[in-house]
Amino acid sequence: MLSPREGAGVPEVSFANLFFVSLIALCAPTVLGFFPRSGIPSVVVAIAAGVVLGPAGLKLIRVDSPLEILALLGLALLLFLAGLEIDVRRMRGHLLRAVLAGYGLTLVLSVLAGLLFDALDWVRSPLLLAVTLSATSLGLVVPVLTDAGEAEGATGLRVLAAASVAEFGGVLMLSLLFSTSGGSIGERIVMLVVFAALVAAVGVAVSLAGRSMRLGGVLRRLQDTTAELRVRAAVVLLIGFVVLAQMFGLETILGAFVAGVIVGIVDHDTTTHPRFRAKLEAIGYGFLVPVFFITSGLQLDLRGLVASPSALLRVPAFLLALLIVHGVPAALYVRAVGTRASIAAGLLQATSLPLIVVAAEIGVVQDLLSPVNAAALVGAGLLSTLIFPAAALALLRRS
What we know:
399 residues; mainly alpha; 0% strand
């Protein structure tokens, strides 16, 4: 029953807000489907709809308990799916050295940008801004490269490797430096080392279990029945790592991301279960992930941003910072792929939204970021998903 009996002492829960959020999640990609050449990601429309219909706009939808819980699950699954995209087998040799050098340069430029905005008195924590600017959205970059037929090319491999390192580094630094669980950085480092050891042990155990003939037979027999055994196992691993991260005083996003990486490593051969990842994506992108993004739009302080011209100016400033922070390191690719492809790589690496949304929420909760600056950062992330992938695709097609 959705509503408890009268007099049961339990407050009645309304699903009206969840219905409207689900309706937005349905309508956003449907409307864009009529304009296939627009190049606008549906997540941008979803967040914008949340802003317009939420407390900062028409006040038709508000964030209540059902939305909060589902948004948290959506965030966890989003990071899990991002971790699933990482192909660690390609991260070696010259490619790994080039990507790590580029990420080091990204961090230096991010810190300089954070200090600059701090000198302008725009931010309260230049370090949080630096971590936020250093992130790349792997989940948004992969489909762009796939559509362009560049995912397996020289440019695509470099961009995917760089995005993987940037996303992992961003999640790790947010968890280590800005965990909401408290504790000193030294304590968090110790906890992180223990957490990594346990993750490695679980990964080895899962890998050994996957080689069992009897267990493999059971998985194959039940994977496409109502048992959906592989999907349930992935969910257990996801929630288990989230709980483990919480126990060690780390951000839950780290546990979710690492769970996806572990599944990606152990489950690299999908010949016996080709639909497994599609099912996980259906749960995430079909239901929970849109709830997270729309709820993020509902919580944006757009009124405060629009009310002040100086605050509104921060959106293009943050966008330019994203482009510089990720575009300059892409110059390292010029000798390998050419100038035009390197510019396209820089644009794709500057495409960032999910981790910006997460970092903005953490900053507001810890009073390290004003709601107006959080809205400006998310606005810059939205613009990056609108402008940079389309420009990168145009350059890749010409090259």
